Amino acid sequence: MDSIINKLTEIEDAASAVVQHAEDQKAQLEKEYEEKRKAFDSDLEKKTQARLDSIRAELEKNTSDILGGQTTASEQAILALQKEYEENHTRYAHEILRRITEV
Questions:
Q1: What is the pLDDT of residue 52?
Q2: CB neighbours of 59 closer than 8 A, spacing ≥ 6?
Q3: Cα separation of 57 and 71, whole Å?
Q4: Distance between CA 87 and CA 80 in Å, rounded?
């Protein structure tokens, strides 16, 4: 009878050791999974930030180019109007005076 009890105790001890080993492996796998998840999240965040920075830089460049083009066009229009005025302001003044005095 003692040998049966001893065998059952050995089986129970072995089963407990197997369960403990499985729990240890589970904890280790959970730790590895968590580390891999954190590494993935970190890598994804870096890639996303790099892409956002690239898009932001491109947008700023495009905006700057558009504003520069508009500024150049505005300056050219102002210069053309000033040149027109300088060349024709006397004629414009005479035309205005003629219309005012015309009956």
A1: 98
A2: none
A3: 21
A4: 11
Task: Provide the pLDDT for residue 103.
Answer: 66
**Residue burial 45-55, b: 16+ Cβ < 10 Å; e: rest:** eeeeeeeeeee
pTM: 0.54
Tokens of 103: 């009956």
**For 4-43, what is each residue's pLDDT tens digit?**
888 889 899 899 999 999 999 999 999 999 999 999 999 9
**Measured between alpha carbons, how far is 38 from 72 in angstroms, rounded to an integer?**
50
Residue from 34, 14, 37 nearest 26 by CA: 34
Given the structure tokens 């993935």, which residue do they identify? 40
Residue 18 to residue 27: CA distance in whole angstroms: 14
Cα–Cα distance measured from residue 20 to residue 86, given in angstroms and rounded to the nearest whole number: 97
Q: Which residue has the tokens 């219309």?
A: 99
